[in-house]
Amino acid sequence: MFAYQQPQVQHRKWMFWMLFLTISLVLFGCQLPGWSSPPAPAQPVQPQPLQQPVPQQLPAQQPLPQQLPLQQPVPQQLPPQQPFPQQQPFPQQRQAFNLVGVWESQIPTKYGTMYTQMILQHNGSYSYQVVLGNLMTWEVGVYQAGEGFIHFTLQDYGPREYMGREMARPMSWSVFYTVVDENTMIWEDRVLGARWTVYRQG
Known about the structure:
Distance between the termini: 196 Å
Strand order of the largest sheet: 1-2-3-4-5-8-9-10
């Protein structure tokens, strides 16, 4: 009897475990691979309307501080202006003496009276003649006037010889002058040590 009942008890236990296993599989079958039902077809995604950005509200503007009026500079009182000293009148400048003209002279010598004539031109050229007895000499060239002197530079002269002798002459010479009046000067040749008076003609 006991041998017959033992197999029934074991069969019941086995059935109980099978039932438990079946329920477990039913409950958790969706989690086991191969037991879950095929997935439902995916629904098309409906496009969502673009969401307009919410404008950010700017903070309330603070009122500008009231600008203070510019301070006007206080004018500084200038000291009383001193009167300008009176300018002393410039001394009258000495006007340059006009040398242009015809200047003649008569110079007494031991050989007789020597007559000279000097013609000074505006363009700086000159001609000079000397007559002593039967001898007459001449020269032409250019002159340069300075403060109280005249320098002559010869360009040509004659005669080249006199009574068979060659007439050699220096190619430049100078005189220092002193103004006596508008038409009178005293000339001095410091090389020869001679002084004579010349007079303006015309």
